[in-house]
Amino acid sequence: MSAFLILCLAAFLAGLIDAIVGGGGLISLPALFTVYPEQIPATLLGTNKFNGIWGTATAAVNYSKAVKINWNVAIPASITAFTFSFFGAYTITHVSAHFLRLGLPFILLGLAVYTFKRKNFGHAHIPVFSGTKERYAAFLTGGVIGFYDGFFGPGTGSFLVFIFVRYFGFNFLSASAVSKVVNVACNVSALLLFGFSGHIIWKVGISMAIFNIAGSVCGSRLAIKNGSGFVRKLFLFIVKLLIIKTFYDGYLR
């Protein structure tokens, strides 16, 4: 299989998975590192962000047509996510993320166990907050996750979905919809940094973006059609993959 086909297939699958529950980078980023082992990591990360943002934005639009997105949460969270993603990216240039790399698999394990044990977790949509309290909670969530995304990144979409279900009372489908909007803000912030510093392979990024969008359309339609139960199952599957990957990165590499 040619390098081009590998990247296009990876982008499609990444878009499909990411549109449903996040974690598409588990597929597209390793593919880029495999095809371009000589490239510096920042360039591959920038290229991955560029192709991924188009799929995430497409998913957000599709969800908005079929699911009532809570903009009282999505907009404040997006604003602080965008802002604090810059701070996170700046911090990583001065502080090592080694401590986070070691702890992340265990955080994800706790998240997976909690979700698995609560069989009805994320099935009902019963918002916990309203009005000003909801906006403040959204500001806080966007700031924390935005900083994390800029500083380190793995599992950002999964963390967002979990927080919106556990602490905001959303069902998995609504949580996934809101998380796409916030994810776009995080990615735009990071993309500005990568773009201005020349860390994007434009031809590769544009080609992958087309297939990422196609995968995103399929993924968002699957999620909307099959509902929160389907999203929950895929969420657990992706978190398990994240646990394996982050454990390998932190302790075996």
Characterization of the model:
- With 253 residues, the protein is mainly alpha-helical.
- It has one domain (3-252).
- It is built from nine helices and no strands.
- The protein has helices spanning 3-21, 25-35, 41-66, 71-92, 98-117, 131-151, 156-166, 172-196, 202-252.
- Helix 6 (131-151) runs antiparallel to helix 7 and helix 6 packs across helix 8 (172-196).
- The longest helix is centred in the C-terminal third of the chain and has 51 residues, at 202-252.
- The chain starts with a helix and ends with a helix.
- The relative contact order is 0.22.
Annotate the secondary structure layout.
Elements: H1 3-21, H2 25-35, H3 41-66, H4 71-92, H5 98-117, H6 131-151, H7 156-166, H8 172-196, H9 202-252
Could you tell me the number of beta strands? Answer: 0
Number of domains: 1
Q: Mean pLDDT across all residues, rounded?
A: 90
Helical stretch tally: 9
What best-fitting shape do the alpha-carbon axes yield?
A: globular
| End-to-end separation | 27 Å
Low-confidence stretches: none
Kindly provide the radius of gyration, computed on alpha-carbon positions and rounded to a whole number of angstroms: 17 Å
Class inferred from helices and paired strands: mainly alpha
The ordered H/E elements are HHHHHHHHH
Please state roughly what percent of the residues sit in beta strands, choosing from under 5%, 5-15%, 15-25%, 25-35%, 35-45% or over 45%.
Answer: under 5%
Largest sheet: none
Percentage of helical residues? over 70%
